[in-house]
Structures are given as C-alpha cells and as structure tokens.
Amino acid sequence: MSPPFAWAIYILKGGTIMKQVHSEILTFKGTHFDFGKYNGEQLKKSLTTYNRKKHWKIRRPRFQIDVKEAEKQFKQFVPAMWDEILGLSEGLQQPLEEVLKDYGGYRVEIDRSGCSVMMEPTFMIRNYDYQPQTYEGRFSLFQPTDAGFASIGPSSRITGRMDGMNEKGLAMAYNFTHRKSPESGFVCYMIGRMILNSCSSVEEAIDLLKEIPHRNAFSYMVMDTTGKRYVIEAGPRGVAAREATVCTNHYEILTAENRNHLGDSHKRMETIENNRYTGISGEEAFRMLNDTDGGVFSKKYKGWAGTIHTSAYFPQELQVWFAIGGDQTPRVFDFKKWLAGESISSKYIYGEVDTTLPFAHMD
After folding, report:
1. Which end of the chain is less crowded, N or C, counting CB atoms within 10 A of the terminal residue's CB?
2. Separation of CA 286 from chain center
3. What is the C-alpha separation between 186 and 201, in angstroms, rounded?
4. Does residue 350 surpass a pLDDT of 90?
5. What is the CATH number of the domain that holds 31?
6. Coil, strand, or helix at residue 217?
7. Considering the domain boundaries, does residue 245 fall inside one?
8. Phi-psi domain of 79 (left: phi exceeds 0; alpha: psi -120 through 50; beta: other)
9. What is the pLDDT at residue 58?
10. Do 177 and 249 form a contact (C-beta atoms < 8 A)?
11. pLDDT value for 14
C-alpha cells in the first residue's frame, strides 16, 4: 500500500519555523452504524489509516484483542458504540479484530502525555498535550438518531474523544496519570466518548466511571450547566471523585498511582492557580493556557507532552472554542445552532505548531 500524497507546509513566524496543521470539521446526523460507516469510507485511503498500518509493522502490540470480550463490554455499557464499530469495519473494509486494534478503545496501551485543565463556574479550558504523530486532525459534530446524546469535540482514534461537550451541556476532558500495571478495560479516549454519549450531569459521569473497567490511570474532568466541577481519578485499582477546578497530571486522592517525577505537573498547576482570579473571563483564561509565554503551554513535542490544541467549553451557551497551536485566535462553534439545523460552512480549522515532527493525518 503506497501512502496518499501530501505536502508538509512550514512558515516563518517571529523567527521560528512553524508547521501548518489543520483539523477537518466533520458533521453527521444519523445512526451510530451509519456514522461509523461514513468515517470508515472517509478513512479508507487516508494517511491516518496508512500510518496505523505502518505503525504495527514497526511496533508489536502490547495487548491482545478478544473480539467477543470487547463486544460484551461495549454492549453492556454503550451498545450504540458497538454499532459504530461495526459500521467502521464495513466502511474500512477491514475485519473487526483489526478495527478494534486500531480504533476500538478497549484493551489498548497508552503512551505518556501531559495536558492541563482549568474550570470556572461557566467554562472549561483545556490544553491537549501529546505527540504529533498520534494526532489525526478530526473535529466531529455528531447527532445520533438511534441512541445517546449529540456531542462536539476533537476525535482520537476516530471513535474516541480527547475532550468535548454534549447537547446536555456536560463538558469533559482527561489527563494522563500513569500507565503502570494496566488491566483489561477501556482507555481514556473511549471513556471520554462514553461520558459524552451517556451522561447528562456530573453525577452520572461519576457513576459511569465507577462502573466501567479501566485499563490505565487517568483523571477525567467534568462540569455541567449547574457549574459543578469535578475531577474523577480513575484507574484499574480504584475510582475517586473530588470537587476541583484545576487538573494537570497527578492524583490528589489515589496518590499511590502517581509517577515519581511530578515537577512539571505541579508547576503547570501552580501557574494556573497563581494567575487565575475571581471573575476571570473565558477570553483571559483561554489566553492563559494558549499563549506560548504563559507558563502552561508546552513545546515538549518530542517528549510526548507538547500542546497541540487548546479547547474551551461553555455549557450554558453550548459554545465551543478551538485552536491548533499556540498564540491563536480560537475558532468559535455554536453547537446549539448546529443542533437546530444551522450548517457549518467551513471544512477545516487551521493553526501552526512549533515542531518538525510528522502528524498522523498529514505526513
């Protein structure tokens, strides 16, 4: 299989060579199966699929796929997601085992990452810090007609969500804590999708995370239209929820799960805490996390912890801001208007990232 044709584009900005990066805006209204099939047809000849195949030629999976077990788990907690995976398999024209390995979100190993989240009573701001080679550049708006809530947010491994918000105004993001001693269970991006698909409140999200099996240790930040803000520390060996407004990459209750070196995590948390104040606006908070000289934005792309996007969620207005790279003016999405039938004219979100590393959907 030869790779699809693509160009990597760089620009000179302030004396720094920046890589131009885009995310495709995908909108879909229909059943989960049809959404999966649509995604599969879009991806069949894409660089994302080519790079996933290339990845497994270089690295052997550190997990096994049991199709029957995965089906049982999905059907117990989010049966509509199993329909989406079946549709994805049909659209990609790949066997279920291969689709589950690449996009299933169950029994999959996760690499280390960063990430910072700040929550105020009316909004959540999130920096997604990770490795560019894993980024697939897809921003999805999906309104199901069969089951579950409509949601908006950047996708991960096609079926999952890195962060997002649903039609009930529940906003979600996750942060990495540790990947030691993994067990059979769902991984972060699929859990994020499950929260958005199934939960209408903070309480429902907490209940879900206490019920499902977890493969790795992550924090899940959730807030709803009431202004409640919680960090849910969740992993194979326990789940604990606490009211909180800032989260980076360490637990504060299940501390035995923390890594040994947490200096960077504590530093980013302290920077946010020291610069926030009562009544801070969404614009000011966004700048705090997205400005490259603000102390929170990270350029550690080779260390699996560079900021790729900054997102903001406003539950009461059902509004989303999204930007790729630092020092950006965010693209604004009115999710409420889209749900009511208003279309989105543009197809892409553009930005610049200070790295020469390849992106999964572009290189």
Report:
1. N
2. 18
3. 21
4. yes
5. 3.60.60.10
6. strand
7. yes
8. alpha
9. 56
10. yes
11. 72
The two beta strands, 16-30 and 138-144, are parallel
For the cut 90, the answer to whether the pLDDT of residue 48 exceeds it is: no
Q: Is the pTM of this model over 0.85?
A: yes
In percent, the amount of the chain with pLDDT more than 90 equals: 75
In the numeric block, which tokens belong to residue 205? 């999200």
With 0-12 CB in 10 A as exposed, 13-18 as middle and 19+ as buried, what is 241? buried
**Total number of domains in the chain:** 1
Q: What distance in Å separates the CA atoms of residue 308 and residue 353, rounded to the nearest whole number?
A: 7
Alpha carbon distance 27, 123 (integer Å): 23
Range of the domain at 271: 10-353
Q: Is 359 part of any domain?
A: no
Residue 2 lies in a domain: no
Distance separating alpha carbons of residues 103 and 101, to the nearest angstrom = 6
Residues in the chain: 363
The answer to whether 18 touches 10, Cβ cutoff 8 Å, is yes
8 A C-beta contact, residue 160 and residue 192: yes
Distance of alpha carbon 81 from alpha carbon 147, whole angstroms: 9
